[in-house]
Amino acid sequence: MKNKQKWFLILMFMVSFISVFSMGDPSEEKWNDGEEEKNKIRLDDFQKTILERHNYYRGIAGIPLMKWSPRIAQNAQKWANQLKGRGCKMAHSSNSLRENVAGHSYLGENLYWAWSSASVTPDASRAQNSVDSWYSEIADFQYSENGTICPLRGKKGMIGHFTQLMWDKSVELGCAHAVCGGKSLVIVCQYGPGGNFNMDENPPFPPEAAERLNKDPVNQPFGGLPRCDSK
Hints:
Layout: H1 2-23, H2 26-39, H3 45-61, E1 67-68, H4 70-85, E2 99-101, E3 104-106, E4 108-115, H5 124-135, H6 160-165, E5 172-180, E6 184-192, H7 207-215
Parallel strand pairs: 1-5
Antiparallel strand pairs: 2-3, 4-6, 5-6
């Protein structure tokens, strides 16, 4: 009887040992959770909205969604700060300021300006307005697989903000803002890698994306997205 009790106790000890060993060190699990938390990119309302709005339109087209790049955002902020020193007058940054940033040989850039007689705040609403403004240039755009060579549909003569926003190979985004005198606001978005490259040969996105954009109800107010080539 005593031998049976002895072997029973030994067996229970072995089971307990194996259970503790298989569970691992709880402190290691907490450390890993801490590392994941530390590596998460925390975006404010402005940043979160402007990224989501880009991806809203890109999602309609079925092209790759963008990821936020803190390094590109930092570069955009440098230019926004310079524009603030000029009274928020709109001007693109030089190519040299957008070369070899965040692992990209070149960054694209979109600018937006707003003014209010009372005051202007760089909030989520302004972030969304900026992207909507750039996207609205689809009203002047026609699609061709051979590049952005079609005659414009409208009279604004601007499609470059739209094509950069929707350039399918631009997959990283960073944006910044500056306020001048409390009444004017400039928003700078930069894109990696830069779009609008060899536009006479390269369309911003494939024909399947153009077809989705043409059919989606959100583009009905813009007349869809027609094609100017034979297909």
